[in-house]
Amino acid sequence: MTQSSPIRQHVAALDEDVTIALKASDVVEVKLIGAPGALVTLSLYTDGTPFDAALLSDRGEHQRSLLQKGEGRKHVVILLPDEPAHLTITTAIAGSLTLRQTGSIEADDLKSPPRDYLSPKIVTLARNLEHDPSTDAFWQMAEAEGTPLVEEGEKGKSLLTFLFRGASRNVKMLGGPTNDIYELERLGQSDVWFRTIAVPEASLFSYQLADDVPSFVGPVRARRLAILSTAKADPLNRFPWPASAPDNFNQSSTFRAAGGGLEPWYDQATNQRGTLTHHRLASERLANTRDIWIHRSAGVVVADEATPLLFVFDGEQFLKKGLVDRSIDALVEAGRIPPMVTVFVSSVDNVVRARELPDSDAFADFMADELLPFVIDRTGLRPRGDRTILSGSSFGGLGSTTIALKRPEKFGAVLSVSGSYWWSPQGAPEGQNTIAHRVATSEPKKVRFYLSAGLFEASRGDGFASILEPNRYLSDVLTAKGYEVKRAEFPTAHDMFAWREILPQGLIHLVGR
Q1: How far apart are CA 22 and CA 103, in angstroms?
Q2: In terms of Cα–Cα distance, which of 345, 272, 329, 259 is closest to 507?
Q3: Positive or negative torsion for Cα 268, 274, 279, 281
Q4: Whole-Å CA distances, 136 to 128, 132, 146
Q5: Confidence of residue 114 (pLDDT cuts 50, 70, 90)
Q6: 347 with 316: CB under 8 angstroms?
Q7: Is the model's pTM score more than 0.85?
Q8: What is residue 429's DSSP assignment?
Q9: Which are the contacts of 113, defined by CB distance < 8 A and separation ≥ 6?
Q10: For a 10 Å CB count at each end of the chain, is N or C smaller?
């Protein structure tokens, strides 16, 4: 029996039904709208008849099956082959099929949409690179302006574009306005690596750039820490911190936007400086020895029980990088706070720090029963508990709170900067804010709080520890329990560059005149 010739039809227009009636053993060939390489979308509907539909080249070579026996309705997306092709429809019994082609995009139009760059200067550069591969003029501009490039954004925000020239594999940013590591993007095949970020007014942060960070198979933490192998100051940034360092690996770059309530008190000239003395203190309770620095403001009256006494955890960092002693001198001279005694408490090392600061009963006892009497003996101070402040950042903020809640008769105020209230002891319910839960389930203590956190310390959404949200929650719980709480939030990150300006703000609030 001779097979009948195929019945040929074509789709005349998009979104119009083409109804095909077939007798048993009929073969129908349908030409779709679209040249070779086009992206086509279509829908197939049957009356229940077991049709077969396939895409074939005009040479008869099978490309793909679109409809098989028993499928009554199907929506498909296909890429036409690079040669003329058609649909072939067959059935063993009579029936009807309706085909509707809903789309066709020609191969020449299948291109990625233009990148919507945030930075107008990157937009201009991208356009210029389409005609001229040279980036020399762009880099001359970047060097003249300094980085990050600053442009006007929406709703009062500034657009900051961070740049790096000439990396081979990758560029990453450590620090900056983020609670994560930022990847910079390469602009086409040029030597320009960039990242544009919108930040609010008064933003304050430091950062480093790392080029060609090693990539390898290994634990997540090890791969993240690999950034430290190449992280260094941004060569085009004009404000390195510290200003002098052995090399750029030991420097960060900084940015400060206009506005806001933070001030660089450490940079204020003063006529009278306080005195700073160094001590070593051996602890029986902790079985270790640490450095202690005691700063006495000019004009301090140790016989006055109202004279404030401030303890600062991570004392070596707040002295060396934070310059808090200078800030206190400037605040006292400006009349913003009374003369006071400040004790900078060394962390010994990172292992000891991680053991002592997060909710250690032994460390709380050390502070109240060993260090406090040591300071009283060395200074002659007779401090009142409500004028004695514990302060610190990160784990130091956490430790300040837990110690004050354990020994409120000794420490009546907490100045917490970016406190790590995400922390929970091993075995605690997952996601529980341990300190907030403790506050909620215990009687209020006579402790005042200044809790600050950075807007750039928010949750990343991947389970990484957040600072901002747990601080807000703790503040709400403290307030609900009747504590005196000042909550402060700044457009800053987890960064000593900002903490050295936030801590003085907390002092002004807690003991300011």
Answers
A1: 25
A2: 329
A3: negative
A4: 12, 11, 15
A5: confident
A6: yes
A7: no
A8: P
A9: none
A10: N
Q: Tokens at residue 344, please? A: 């900078």
Q: Which helix (H) or strand (E) holds 39?
A: strand 39-46
* Peptide linkage before 470 cis (omega within 30 of 0): no
- Where does residue 335 fall: left (phi above 0), alpha (psi -120 to 50 degrees), or beta otherwise? left
Residue 90, Ramachandran bin (φ over 0: left; ψ between -120 and 50: alpha; else beta): beta
> In terms of residues, how long is the chain?
513
The values of phi and psi at residue 90, to 5°, are -135, 160
Beta bridge partners of 163: 194
Pairing mode of beta strands 288-296, 275-283: antiparallel
- Tokens representing 30 are 């349908």
Angstrom distance (rounded) from CA 90 to CA 94: 10
51, β-bridge pairs = 91
Q: Are 116 and 38 in contact (CB under 8 A)?
A: no
Distance CA 211, CA 226 (A): 11
Edge-first strand listing for the sheet containing 185-186: 149-152, 158-165, 192-199, 185-186
As separate numbers, helices (DSSP H) first and strands (DSSP E) second, the chain gives 12, 27
d(CA 254, CA 205): 6
Contact 354, 378 (CB under 8 A): no
Q: What angle do CA 434, 438, 439 make, to 5 degrees?
A: 120
Helix H segments across 197-283? Answer: 220-225
Mean of pLDDT values over 132-138? 96
Q: What average pLDDT score do residues 98-107 get? A: 94
Q: What is the phi/psi pair of residue 255, to 5°?
A: -145, 140
Which three-class secondary structure state does DSSP give residue 302? coil
Spatial separation of the C-alpha atoms in residues 88 and 59, rounded to whole Å? 12
Strand extents, DSSP E, 153-274: 158-165, 171-175, 182-183, 185-186, 192-199, 204-211, 231-232, 240-241, 252-256
Distance, CA of 356 to CA of 345 (rounded, Å): 12
Neighbouring CB atoms inside 10 A of 255's CB total 23
Over the stretch 411-424, which tens digit does the pLDDT of each residue have? 999 999 999 999 99
Q: In this structure, what is the dihedral angle of CA atoms 259, 254, 181, 249, given to the nearest 10 degrees?
A: -170
386 half-sphere exposure, CB direction, 13 A CA radius: 4
Helices (H), 312-390: 315-320, 324-333, 350-356, 361-366, 372-379
Q: What is the mean pLDDT of the chain?
A: 93
